[in-house]
Amino acid sequence: MESLKTQKPILVTGGGGYIASWVIKFLLEDGFFVRTTVRSLKDKNKIKHLLSLSETYQGKLEFYEADLLKEGSYDTAIGDKGGCEIVIHMASPFFIEGIKDPQKELVEPALLGTRNVLSSVNRFPCVRRVVLTSSVASIMGDSSDAEKAPEKLIDESYWNETSSLHHQPYPYSKTVAERDAWEIQKKQNRWSLTTINPSFVLGPSLSDRGDGTSVNFMRSMVNGKFVTGVPELYMGIVDVRDVAKAHIAAALNEKVTGRHIVSAEVISMLGIAKILKTHFGNKYWIPKSLLPKFLAYLVGPFFGLSWEYINKNIGISFSLNNTYSKQDLGISYRPISETLIEHINQLAEAKLI
Ligand code: NDP
Predict the structure, then answer these.
(1) Which PANTHER family does the UniProt record give (predicted)?
(2) How far is the CA of 91 from the centre of ligand 1 (A)?
(3) Spacing, Cα 96 to ligand 1 middle (Å)
(4) How far is the CA of 95 from the centre of ligand 1 (A)?
(5) 7-11, 172-176, 303-307 — which is least confidently predicted?
(6) CA of 22 to the centre of ligand 1 (A)
(7) DSSP for 57-100, written as a single string
(8) Whose CA is nearest to atom 12 of ligand 1?
(9) H or E element: which one contains 21?
């Protein structure tokens, strides 16, 4: 693969996050200088795994404080000491439960944050390449969206046109942020943009943080939350390490273009439970059966699932076309059984289950 041979640090925004931490680790292992932003350097609990990486790779990892909602907040990280050529913009809130004000909690940090980072990119001529972490959520919102695609096979040509502030606000936040990034990129020709659109990311975390959506989902698959049965929900799954490698391939190869569905396989929640049960037996409270749809309507609201969500998602399968990601990024996908089992083992080691 043709590499962008940068001697300058590569910036990863939101370094304390689940996926970003793996990107940073792999970049350091590959010998790159890395710069990362975190919201607060005082919150050592969120970044202790990064501090330990900076001990291992002395002088190779720099930290800057930045907040998506503060204008100009990324200027120093992007432009300091000769600046960066490559920016991987990954920081964005990812949660789907307990949302009180979707505009403030999700849309503003995703959309204004992306604008904020790209305004800084525009201000510093050193930047040549931006990789944006978008999501499959900006390609499709509900499973029923796949019904518009032949054989319900969704590819990168689709956009999520069904999510809104009130229905599926997280997918909506990712959609408006990605659309805006493409608009901003089109207005200039100094830096190129490519997006990574992962499906649901699972696999071992480098930190023992318990506050991420991916981590919480895996905990819920073994801690008895679904002991009465899982809803018949289908989801694309991909290993966090494959997602990290996809970002690095996109960052370093200027020929990589466009959007990329990064997803290993679509599977149901019961399918996930079966893989875990086969490996772990009765060690954990792993769900054994499906929750009938009428019960999903009854108990759904207690799990944060609206009736509209249940209608448009439960019992509806779909496929994600990952061909372009394999060709353009040169990645191959780990089997999801490995992803799931290693994730549970890591959570057990971190005493999170
Ligand atoms: P995490 O919650 O682990 O990471 C989110 C990161 O965003 C954290 O570093 C967090 O900072 C940062 N962040 C949130 N709000 C702000 C803010 N106001 N200012 C600055 N930073 C902020 O999630 P993931 O690693 O899972 O997600 C990373 C990216 O990947 C996101 O863009 C997400 O939308 C995308 N994605 C994730 C998928 C998944 O399944 N995990 C699937 C598809 C896309 P802090 O560390 O301070 O909390």
Answers:
(1) CINNAMOYL-COA REDUCTASE CAD2, NAD DEPENDENT EPIMERASE/DEHYDRATASE
(2) 5
(3) 12
(4) 9
(5) 303-307
(6) 13
(7) TTTTEEEEE--TTSTTTTHHHHHGGG--SEEEE-------SS-S
(8) 91
(9) helix 18-29
Lowest-confidence region among 68-82, 166-180, 217-231: 217-231
Atom of ligand 1 nearest to the CA of 137: 43
Write out the residue range of the structural domain in which residue 162 sits: 10-349
pLDDT-wise least confident of 70-79, 202-211, 320-329: 202-211
Q: Evaluate whether residue 1 is within a structural domain.
A: no
49 belongs to a structural domain: yes
What Rg do the C-alpha atoms of the chain give, in angstroms? 20
- Give the model's pLDDT for residue 97: 81
Is the pLDDT at 305 greater than 90? The verdict is: no
The predicted structure's pLDDT at residue 252: 96
SS3 7: coil
Tokens representing 295? 């019960």
Write down the residue that tokens 């996050």 correspond to: 17
3 assigned to some structural domain: no
Listed as own residue / partner, the contacts of 252-256 with beta carbons closer than 8 Å and 24 or more positions apart are 252/1, 252/3, 252/4, 252/6, 252/86, 253/1, 253/2, 253/3, 253/4, 253/329, 254/2, 254/4, 254/128, 254/129, 254/192, 255/2, 256/194, 256/328, 256/329
**What confidence score (pLDDT) does residue 210 get?**
83
Residue nearest to atom 18 of ligand 1 (CA): 68
Number of domains in the chain: 1
Which CATH number goes with the domain that contains 319? 3.40.50.720
Instruction: Give the DSSP letter string of 114-158.
Output: HHHHHHHHHH-TT--EEEEE--GGGT-SSGGGGGGSGGGEE-TT-
Query: What are the Cα distances from residue 218, in Å, to 15, 155, 280, 333?
Result: 21, 26, 14, 19
What was the pLDDT predicted at 298?
77
80 forms beta bridges with: none
Interval 122-181: pLDDT, tens: 999 999 999 999 999 999 999 999 999 999 999 999 999 999 999 999 999 999 999 999
